[in-house]
Fold:
Amino acid sequence: MPTYSASDGTRLAYRDLGEGNGDPVVCVPGGPTDSRYLGDLGGLSGHRRLALPDLRGTGRSATPEAPASYRCDRLVDDIEALRVHLGLDRIDLLGHSAGANIATQYAARHPHRLNRVALIGPSTRAVGLDITGETRLQAARLRKDEPWFPAAFAALEAITEGTGTDWDAISPFFYGRWDAAAQLHHAESRPANTEAVIRFGEEGAFDPTATRTALAEVTVPVLLLTGECDLNSPPEVIAGFAELFPDALLAVQPGAGHYPWLDDPESFTAVAADFLARP
Structure:
């Protein structure tokens, strides 16, 4: 597994997948965690090379000396260090879930270093778009015919009302199919570094007003792709996210949850590969 050095000297690792032509797409995982749960993004590595970093303190990346460096805005520096390591003047940047916060802040800070940006099931914390409990419940109701729905929906209602904390019970909502493959993926992709998770969103990690202002000057093409049933990134909220960019494409994958490349790999790769091939 190749490694590179962050600006503070922390040794960071990344996976290099695919044999496609052209420069690699830098794919930032959510969590914050390592990149294994992304797999090969449903076969996207058959279209493009992928560089998938393990965020600091996760996977095979070293634990930093300064815990404050887990903060989201500081992780942007690790992506810039990877760009330099890869010897690229500009990059195609993809971010999933919480990793989209890193990718969004990178775009705001380094627009001249981008070719394209793809935000998959993106978190909206970096731009300050709130997702109400009712919006999440509305998305959840799309799954009302599933056998696991009653128990999972009751747990979700309790969480949105502030009376429940059984996050594991609502896991089925994040997948288009709650089958054996989804359950295994869920079990293997939980963040292992609690401190990294806690410090990711510490005070100062986000400046939504400044970020939104900067995104108005990001003129490269941007794809925002979310699942029709994604509680984390409901389509109506992500549509508002898309409006913050001058050149944005919103794609809603039918029947998909928070991991659209697992729910329908062919549909996901068709949209993502086509976007990444745009001139």
